[in-house]
Model the fold of this input.
Amino acid sequence: MAIIQASCPRCDTDRDLRPDQVRLVVYDDTPDRSYYGFFCYVCGENVSEPANVEVIKLLVVGGVRPEYVNIPSEARERHSGPVLNEDDLIAFGLALKNADPVERAKSDPRSGEPQ
Done:
């Protein structure tokens, strides 16, 4: 089994880790967001560091199983208009709560007016 050496930036100690003690998260479309992490038993902190392509290759060769993240294209779209706020959500919830399904069923679907 491979041993992965990592340094904790918080307490400045070197750690020998097994592959199952390292978390590697790889973003498919934005590799600059990829990172690896581990728990430092010396200072008790979860450590997270950026992982470039070279680091990703080394960790995978060392036996670390990557977690691949694929961000949907909808999440990367540019949006315009005002941002929804808490009042908008409350108003929407009240509109749904006060909607009468019987009256909606009787209304003309083309005009929204009762028949």
